[in-house]
Amino acid sequence: MAYQLTVIVPIYNEEENLYRLEKELGAFLKESIIPAKILLVNDGSKDDSQSFIEQICGRQKDFYYISFEKNCGLSAAIKAGFDYADTEWVGYIDADLQTTPEDFNRLLEYRNKYELVTGVRTERKDSFVKNMSSLIANGIRRTFTHDGMDDTGCPLKIIRTDVAKRIPMFKGLHRFLPAMVLLQQGKIIQIPVRHFPRMAGLAKFGLWNRLISPLMDCFAYLWMKKRYINYRVRKSK
């Protein structure tokens, strides 16, 4: 049966998480309500992640990978996944598994009515500083974008691939995916998903990434919004 969903997993120095990632994603593939495959995107890892990735893809028929020459950042890894996706839907989850692939099925239940379905993390298992900085950053972003989303940093989303491929990417855009779908007159919705503590590896974002950088990105979004080109072809020959 043809794949209908590509799950993108950006990876940067996550060797300690990869066998667990393989196990949980493999379990999801058996339970997914639509046929799915996994695309591991190695964002220039400096540890042994690439070796583990190749081993996983060698023994798992529904796992694929691409590997960057150097570290380019989360938004670049997501964009690469969008570029390589050849399925109707594309999903995204972090390699740290603080969200669970099982919850993709919660999002997929809404796929017939929305162009983007994003998770919103309930009972977050992060530090006070991390939770507060994310809360403030989300408030700032909503003020600029009016997207109505409470948790755009949630690393669990599905997007119609044709819509995702039309999103003009820049660094930090992973926080603005719902707003960019709205610019295409797409429909979006947020659905509660579970959240878990990080079991291994190190977090890739500090206070700058969660608070100061998103504020700067908001101005980039406003500039893009004024110049965004959106069209639909009525007829062609």
Structure description:
With 237 residues, the protein is of the alpha/beta class. The protein has one domain: Spore Coat Polysaccharide Biosynthesis Protein SpsA, Chain A. It contains 8 helices and 7 strands. Strands 3-2-1-4-6-5-7 form a 7-stranded mixed beta sheet, with helices on both faces. The model has no long low-confidence stretch (mean pLDDT 86).
Strand order of the main beta sheet, please?
Answer: 3-2-1-4-6-5-7
CATH topology: Spore Coat Polysaccharide Biosynthesis Protein SpsA, Chain A
Number of strands: 7
| Mean pLDDT rating | 86
Low-confidence stretches: none
Quickly give the structural class. Answer: alpha/beta
CATH architecture: Alpha-Beta Complex
Helicity level: 25-40%
Reported for the largest beta sheet, the result is: 7 strands, mixed
Shape label: globular
N-to-C SSE series?
EHEHEHEHEHEHHEH
Q: What is the CATH top level name?
A: Alpha Beta
What's the structural domain tally? 1
Radius of gyration: 17 Å
Q: What gap, in angstroms, lies between the N and C termini? A: 32 Å
Identify the CATH homologous superfamily. Spore Coat Polysaccharide Biosynthesis Protein SpsA, Chain A
The total count of helices amounts to 8
